[in-house]
Amino acid sequence: MSGCSSSTYTPPPTPTPTPGPDRLSASGTVAAYTGTISQSETNDVIASNPVTMNQAGTANVTVTVGSDASGNTTYTSDEKDAFSLQTLSSTTKATVAFQPASNGQTDVRTLSTTETDSTGAVFSVVYGPNNGLQTVIPEQSGTFTNDASATYTEVDPGVTVGANGSTVTTKRVIAADGSYTESETITLAGVTNENFMAPDFSAREEELAFGGGYEFSAPSNGTITYGFYDSVSPGSPTLGKAEFTAPIPDWIPASQTKPTIETDTIAANATLDARCPSAGATFHGSPNLVKQVVTAVDSALGTVETRTTQSFDVAGAGSVCVTVDDKISSYYDYTGQEGPFLLVTPGSASTVLTSMTMSEAIALKSLNGQTTLSAARAGASVTAAAPMIVPRSVLVAGIQHRVHQALLRRLNAARRATGAVK
């Protein structure tokens, strides 16, 4: 054309969005969830047939999003669980980092959780650098990995020891494979138990108020050897002479090649779990299922725990349903009925003494007060459209702590006559 010169147009560079909390769970967002919670306890040894006690209730959870001074996202969950005979409440705060990863993806990683419940107990978990990963966004079918590294602290003022009760403070440092070292201070007894589980499942569980502690060998040829060892001096965590040693059947599953085994998967276009209640909120599209299965052995306490969590995430709505199932089976009876001797099932190694299961399923009721959630644009990912990605750790923290607390308090209550505690 006359009067025009020829040139090549170079468009300005397109800015790359920086993954961050504001794109995923904006500060000030409030999500309400409602659903069900249940607890079942089975004792296999007090009668010829197992005796089971069940209770069921309703769960109502409100999650509020904020941020901390480091720019991480915080999720504060207020939960009330109403059973027929009692109502429990708890507040849990999860600190979550949205970490840029390869291929333009973002790791959603829980850094820590702290829960305070209505009994006055406080539980906190600080995850290791290769643990706490909740999902990878955009969510696509595949797998991701976590190890078991974490530091767990519990301050429980409600343990019954003697007439007045006593505060028990527990700190457990967990290695990547699930082995651990633990210190446990019982204020009233004036002792600090030093416990551990090694990668080969050898373990020690001290009961210094009882005069010593238990040691367990690594399994060998279908047998675990355990013994009770006296403290070298009253209250000392150093153990000396064995009062006895005895063999017991190896109850640790053959599939458990290390203390903690975890699998994490994402499945696109999944179907909601049948337990997800119809809570009132409507959304569009098929959910992505993020599923975590953790199996953990504690060879000192004699327990196998399996915890399965599921998060159903939908573009435009975020996490629309979360379920948790936590079962812990006990192979040792620490009630002190036979002095320092553990009560175990002498026959089949597969026979548990007691088991407890807690399950919870909650569904999104409203998001910022709205019950009808807008449809995501065609082809949108959870990254682009979801205003509320709820980390499973918020819900898991409460269930996991209640299972452990109920188990340990049952043992403590049985021991109060002898003064021995755990």
Summarize the SSE layout with pairings.
Blueprint: E1 30-43, E2 51-67, E3 73-83, E4 87-100, E5 106-117, E6 122-127, E7 133-137, E8 142-144, E9 150-159, E10 166-174, E11 180-186, E12 191-197, E13 203-207, E14 212-216, E15 223-231, E16 239-249, E17 260-267, E18 288-298, E19 303-314, E20 318-330, E21 333-338, E22 341-343, E23 354-367, H1 382-385, H2 392-415
Antiparallel strand pairs: 1-2, 1-23, 2-3, 3-4, 4-5, 5-6, 5-7, 6-9, 8-17, 9-10, 10-11, 11-12, 12-13, 13-14, 14-15, 15-16, 17-18, 18-19, 19-20, 20-23, 21-22
Question: Could you describe the 3D structure shown?
Answer:
- The protein has one domain (27-415).
- The chain has a 21-stranded antiparallel beta sheet that branches.
- The protein is globular, with a radius of gyration of 25 Å.
- Helix content is 7%, strand content 50%.
- The protein has 422 residues and is mainly beta.
- The longest helix has 24 residues, at 392-415.
